[in-house]
Every structure is written in structure tokens, then in C-alpha cells.
Amino acid sequence: MSQKLKVGIVGGTGMVGQRFLQLLDGHPWFNVTAIAASASSAGKTYEESVKGRWKLATPIPEAAKTIVVQDASKVEEVAADVDFIFCAVDMGKKEIQALEDAYAKTGTPVISNNSAHRWTADVPMVIPEINPGHLDVIAAQRKRLGTTTGFIAVKPNCSIQSYVPALHALKEFNPTKVVASTYQAISGAGKNFTDWPEMLDNVIPYIGGEEEKSEQEPLRIWGSVQNGEIVKASAPLITTQCIRVPVTDGHLATVFASFEKKPSKEEILARWLEFKGRPQELGLPSAPKQFITYFQEENRPQTGLDRDIERGMGVSVGRLREDSIYDYKFVGLSHNTLRGAAGGAVLIAELLKAEGYIQPK
After folding, report:
1. Alpha-carbon distance values, 222 to 54, 133, 153, 235 (Å)
2. Whole-prediction pTM value?
3. Residue 359 falls within a domain, yes or no?
4. CA-CA distance, 4 to 29, in Å (whole number)?
5. Are 138 and 153 in contact (CB under 8 A)?
6. 62 class by beta-carbon count within 10 Å (0-12 exposed, 13-18 middle, 19+ buried)
């Protein structure tokens, strides 16, 4: 494209905001022109605002260092400088909903990394390879918000990316029951080992709210658009346990599944290998060429070895075998701050741009 879209990052000083800046540095379609955060950061250069708080292994992008951080609550001022925003703020649910609504009402598309609007009936929650059709509800949302160009789209919980794609590729066999245990990296809590020394040599068998999200959000992803709303699917039945483990990045899942029409192992492997979605069809810049990669080795996927597959945007699967209680069991892995957070949101923005939902103001 001849002219890059102007992007704002609201919540740009946190870990996910930092990851957005890293991913958008040199992006072929998007250029960061505004960064907003709390009032305490406003007025400082971005480099000053994250001094001592930059959490990524790569340095701050040069282009971002001198951008003066704006107050995220001054919606009109921030929105005036951008064509759309990514939102990754640390606030209460009602505050986030109000903030994102306010940005959308200025005519500014909002791609949210937050959970606040995931169950708003006319807000699409999207894994681009799986449910791009849910973008159809944006028309109803715009009518509700009173805007012709603004809207909100959200990405789902980071942990479900490790197993939902593998199950979605098998939807023709009608999964009926799923048990998934996720082993989640500390970056999912916005922390590293310096911030959280208690996680060294430790496992915490509880992550607040995570199991409810992991059991219910896949059903919304697999739901249907009806009368301007997303109606969640009724199956499969899903139960989960979510555990925090001493890993920097990468959420791993152990999955047990039964099907209405039990496939053969060869059919499962073929569906995983062949699966492509709208991002692959469109050749979007952040789309993995191979969305699902199956490892034949018995000890793969491994978090440390395989989380960065396809630049962190692919999903890895392994250890597929029949089970004595369920039909099959397998292991899945995804990068939680790339595919599961900032990278997934960037891919949503690319899809929205390609489908005509985001245009220059």
C-alpha cells in the first residue's frame, strides 16, 4: 500500500503495549504515530516513560523513543492523530468499556487486547483463521454506537489459542467433550522473573478467572451471527484447569477430546496439515504460512524450543494418540504474547484493513 495507516497504542507502556511497538516497528501497512498511557506518563517521551520498565529482550524501537506520551483519557486528542488504535490498558472492566466506547464513538476503530468487551453481544471476538465472519456484527455495533467508521473488535484469551485452532480444524467430526489443562507463562500476568521471584522453582495451580474464560470463550468463537449479535455455540462441553508455570513465554495445553464422528489418526493429521484460514488466503503480513504444525517426536512441542514457530504466530501440536476414556489426547502450544496477545491483535487489524473495515480518516 502506498500510504501507511496511522496507529495509536493506548496502554503503550505496559508489557503488551511494548510488544505492540516491537511488532509494528517497520510494519508494511501500519505506522505508530501516537502512544497514550496514564496521566503519570503523559508529557514524557516514550523512552523516559518506560525507563527501568522495558521488559522485552529487544531494545525500544528507535522511532518510538521520542514520541511524547499522551494522556489516554483525553480521547479526542489521541484519536485526532490516528486512523485506528490498539488498546491494552490496565483498568477495571467498566472503565475499559467506557474508554473503548469513547474512542469508537470518535469514528476510530479499536482493536482491543482487553477482556472487557469479549461478551458484548455486537463486539466480534476474533481468531482471524477461525471466525472472520463474526466481523459482520460491526454494522450493528456501529449503529448502536452512533458512528459510521468507529467500532471495537477484540482478541480472545491468550490460553485458548493453544488448543482451539487444533480442535477447530476437526470441526467436521463434531467434538462433543473436551478436557484441557493449560500451563501458562508468567508473561501472561505481565511479569518476568525479576518482577516475580516467587515463580522461580515454583508452580501455582490457580490463575484468577482463567478457567471460566478458557471454557466459555471457545463457544463464542464457534458461535454464529444472528440478528446483529454473536450467539455462542452449545457444544462441545469444555472443562479446564489453568496453571502458572516458571516459563517466560508460551502457553502449553494438554487436551483430551471425544467426537460425535470419531476420525482416524490419519484424518486428524491431514486436517491439521491442510488447515488454512482467511489470513493465509489473503497473505496478510503477520499470518503464519503454516498455521498448525504437528511434531512427530514424542517430546515435542516444547515451550522453549517451539513457541517462536512462524515468528510466534503459529500453533504447535504433538503427542496425538488414542485415549482409554476419551477418543484422543494431544498437546498444543502457542506463544502467549505474540499469537495470544499483541501479534493476534495486529493480525486482526490486518484482516480488518484487508476487508475494508479500517481506512484512512
Report:
1. 36, 11, 16, 9
2. 0.97
3. no
4. 5
5. yes
6. exposed
One domain for residues 139 and 167: no
Residues 119 and 264 in one domain: no
User: Which residue is it, cell 502457553?
Assistant: 251
Torsion, Cα 251 256 260 262, to 10 degrees, reads 100
Q: pLDDT, tens digit, for every residue of 229-256?
A: 999 999 999 999 999 999 999 999 999 9
Answer whether residue 197 shows pLDDT above 60: yes
Asked whether residue 205 is assigned to any structural domain, the reply reads yes
- Measured torsion, CA atoms of residues 326, 332, 337, 341, in degrees rounded to the nearest 10: -50
Which of the residues are catalytic?
A: 158, 251
Does residue 97 share a domain with residue 13?
Answer: yes
Same domain, 150 and 178: no
- Is the per-residue pLDDT at 1 higher than 80? no
Give the ranges where 132-176 is alpha helix by DSSP (H). Answer: 138-145, 164-168
